[in-house]
Every structure is written in structure tokens, then in C-alpha cells.
């Protein structure tokens, strides 16, 4: 998998905004991405040092639209911990 296909989008929510103070950032990543690939992608894209990567497989949910039931897709979330004193400027001001 190419390094630029690993990171899909940043996850910006109330919970991840609180994690930002601890030096942790959340991303939606490709389903087949490994921790090593995620670490390399974040280090290259944002020029920071990654200390730790935690990965969560988020299951899809069943939602109802009238009589129809729709199943949302499963996806993979990565929480990346940076070295002390470093931050990703992309998330600032959000």
C-alpha cells in the first residue's frame, strides 16, 4: 500500500479535541494499513515524531430509513501519540 493511501481523513470530534492536549491525534485510515505504515505516513505527511499508534476497528451499524434497513461500512481508526512538545498544525484552530 502506498504511503499516501494510508491516511483517509482526520477525525475531529469533542473527544479527539480533548485528546489533542495529551499530544494524541485521530485519523481514519485504510482498512489494510498496519501500525508501521500509519506511523510512516503521519511522520512523512506532518514532519513529526510518532511515539505510539493505537488502532481501533470500528464496526458498521444498522440504521433505519423508514422501512429500509441500511448497514453502514466498517472502518479503521488510528490514535497517534506524538513526541512531547510536538503538534500537528493541521488540527490547530479547529
In short:
The chain has helices spanning 14-19, 35-46; strands at residues 7-10, 24-29, 50-58, 62-65, 68-71, 75-82. It has 94 residues and is an alpha+beta fold.
Question: Care to describe what's here?
Answer:
It is built from two helices and six strands, in the order E-H-E-H-E-E-E-E. It has 94 residues and is of the alpha+beta class. It has a four-stranded antiparallel β-sheet with strand order 1-2-6-3. Strands 4-5 form a two-stranded antiparallel ribbon. A hairpin with a 2-residue loop joins strand 4 (62-65) and strand 5 (68-71). The chain is globular and about 50 Å long. The chain starts with 6 loop residues before the first strand and ends in a 12-residue tail after the last strand. The mean pLDDT is 93.
Amino acid at each position: 500500500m502506498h504511503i499516501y493511501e494510508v491516511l483517509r481523513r482526520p477525525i475531529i470530534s469533542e473527544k479527539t479535541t480533548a485528546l489533542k492536549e495529551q499530544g494524541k491525534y485521530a485519523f481514519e485510515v485504510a482498512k489494510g494499513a498496519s501500525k508501521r505504515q500509519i506511523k510512516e505516513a503521519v511522520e512523512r505527511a506532518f514532519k513529526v515524531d510518532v511515539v505510539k499508534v493505537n488502532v481501533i476497528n470500528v464496526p458498521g451499524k444498522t440504521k433505519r430509513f423508514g422501512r429500509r434497513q441500511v448497514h453502514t461500512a466498517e472502518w479503521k481508526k488510528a490514535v497517534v501519540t506524538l513526541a512531547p512538545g510536538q503538534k500537528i498544525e493541521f488540527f490547530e484552530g479547529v
